[in-house]
Specification:
Blueprint lengths: L7 E5 L9 H9 L3 H9 L3 E3 L15 E5 L16 E5 L3 E6 L16 H8 L23 E7 L2 H12 L4 E9 L6 E5 L2 E3 L7 E3 L7 E10 L2 E8 L6 H9 L22 E9 L6 E5 L4 H11 L14
Parallel strand pairs: 6-13
Antiparallel strand pairs: 1-3, 2-3, 4-5, 5-6, 7-12, 7-13, 8-11, 9-10, 11-12, 13-14
């Protein structure tokens, strides 16, 4: 597969980013981890006005940042024909409908069964900005969250799409079933999210976290539960799940921040239902929607019919 690698990107710092650390700014702009950005800076692959600077360099309005993403080291990622629906595809990007139960990209000790493996089997090329284990991946969904996700086919598209997410130009909406009957019709939660100080695999609302904003809107009410649409203003790890728990209404079936297996769910009731973005080459506004998977629709039918107790209806087929 031909992957577009090793591109030189030139980024001009916008006024609203003035004063940020270089590594923090580029992590947002390019959708990479800060550690990956720091590695590139130390390797001389990232420069400001042609000069090598430290990761802590405070950027200024108008700074020209040059970024070169070197070709990744070869890694044995095997294309796999996994059940992933391609909703849209052109020469620059693809929009996929990810089922629950599939991780987005490989990680430590896991190189099979991910969305990346499926994309390698279905698409002709993927961008290389994310590194050898995350080709094409602009943003992520949790393993047990289903729904829409955009992937980039080359580095220029990747950088442009990542910039849209960082600058809040792209819009993502989720459907979530919350445990409890919320007393409002709409609510915006602005609370910083960071790594839990004790349970390091979890995220939490903490004063030192990164700013995070989620807007919740009631879609349908049930005895003991509320279906809401969640619009993300930021894109923090586990954001909807953490903010829901913070309000006191955790996502149904959430094994980390709620209660595993409630309503017979084999996953958290969270689905990326809408994605709105601007095409990185044509400038066209693209809108995609995704219906709830059948196992989640079964849960809603059971709630409407008053037969939600231990229905077992939300479990995915084995």
């Amino acid at each position: 597969m031909a992957t577009h690698l090793g591109d030189l990107h030139r980024i001009t710092v916008e006024p609203e980013a003035r004063g940020l650390r270089l590594d923090v700014y580029l992590a947002h702009r390019l959708s990479l981890s800060r550690s990956r950005i720091q590695q590139l800076i130390e390797a001389g692959e990232i420069r400001v006005h042609g000069r090598v600077v430290r990761p802590s360099y405070r950027i200024r309005t108008g700074d020209e940042v040059q970024v070169r993403i070197p070709p990744p080291e070869p890694v044995m990622l095997v294309p796999e024909p996994l059940p992933v629906r391609i909703r849209y595809e052109d020469a620059d990007l693809a929009v996929v409908d990810k089922p629950a139960g599939i991780a987005v990209h490989p990680g430590a000790g896991r190189t099979r069964g991910t969305l990346v493996n499926a994309l390698l089997a279905r698409l002709d090329r993927l961008s290389g900005i994310g590194g050898e284990l995350r080709p094409g991946i602009v943003h992520r969904l949790d393993k047990d969250t289903s729904g829409l996700l955009v992937v980039a086919k080359h580095d220029a598209a990747h950088a442009a799409l990542a910039s849209q997410f960082a600058r809040r130009m792209a819009r993502r909406t989720y459907l979530a079933l919350l445990r409890g009957e919320v007393p409002w019709e709409e609510k915006t939660v602005s609370a910083p999210i960071g790594r839990h100080p004790v349970r390091r695999k979890e995220m939490a609302v903490i004063p030192t976290g990164r700013p995070a904003t989620t807007h919740f809107r009631v879609v349908e009410r049930f005895p003991g539960y509320t279906l809401v649409a969640c619009q993300l203003k930021t894109g923090r790890t586990h954001q909807v799940r953490v903010h829901a728990r913070y309000m006191g209404y955790p996502v149904a079936g959430d094994p980390v921040y709620g209660a595993r297996g409630e309503l017979g769910l084999g996953r958290q009731f969270l689905h990326a239902s809408e994605l709105v973005l601007v095409h990185p080459r044509t400038g066209e506004r693209l809108v995609f929607t995704s219906e709830l998977p059948e196992e989640l629709q079964q849960v809603l039918r059971a709630l409407r019919e008053g037969r939600s107790e231990r229905c077992g209806c939300g479990r995915r087929p084995e």
